[in-house]
Amino acid sequence: MTLDLPLVARGKVREVYDAGDDRLLLVASDRISAYDHVLPTPIPDKGRVLTQLSVWWFEQLTPVLASSGASHHLVSATDVPDSVAGRAVLVRRLGMLPVECVARGYLSGSGTKEYERTGAIVDVALPPGLVEGSRLPEPVFTPSTKAAVGEHDEAIGFSRVESLVGPDRAAVLRELTLALYRRGAEIAAGAGIVLADTKFEFGLAADGGLVLGDEVLTPDSSRFWPASSWSPGAAQPSFDKQYVRDWLTVSGWDRVSPPPELPDDVVAATRRRYVAAYEQLTGTTFR
Ligand code: PZK
Questions:
Q1: With a 6 A CB cut-off, is 214 part of the ligand 1 pocket?
Q2: Given ligand 1 and candidates 8, 96, 204, 210, which is best to mutate, with the most ligand atoms within 8 Å of its CB?
Q3: What is the value of pTM for the model shown?
Q4: What pLDDT was estimated at residue 91?
């Protein structure tokens, strides 16, 4: 696959190209990351599943965005080059805001570590007695800033968001992020999936309007857990990557060396999980 467009940005598992006319092409690959490494073995259809899921979520979230006078960046999921059909979207080029808008309804990962150290996530105080996987009394906004390549995003307090984007816009970002999370979690719950947390990225259109960008509510931007096995007190199984993590752990890989190739059965089981997430959430067959 070689696209004859200028590369604008490259992430671990996707790329952004300049499509001209103030449009970008976001291309999702079949690459998968685990334990901060990109694995050498692709998961067939992962790029198409995540792209189609994100497109579906943009449609579901349009009313939430509209109620804040905001919109999303999606222009077309079909007017894309044949070589990336199904796994690319054409979007409006925005001026991205320098804040990762994270919403958490459950305690997990870096949030748990921060809570265990301080009883809070930066400036968001939490009640005592929570453990990894606990449901929070109410969803919280825990923003971060994009770190340099190879680093993890750094959690920031709300006053830092205010200084980065202005106090009025910061308040809108917090309320809109929480409203989007609540609607997403409600839809996911109806499909038997816990949406533990997620990250949104917003930008500004040429006319100054607030626009939801990036990919939304995919397993790569969110933690999805099977509701049936939710049990706070230990790390929850990941809806999509658990077979990969379990196999990597059992493989003896040290999480520092280049990761090993995945066996065919782990690839197949993981592909099925991505497709299951798509089909359960959307209520439609993936193809
Ligand atoms: C934009 N990224 C993040 C990095 C990726 C994505 N609509 C937009 N306008 C301007 N810039 C961006 C977007 C979007 N979405 C987002 N980088 C640029 C990013 C690496 C790989 F796929």
A1: yes
A2: 96
A3: 0.97
A4: 98
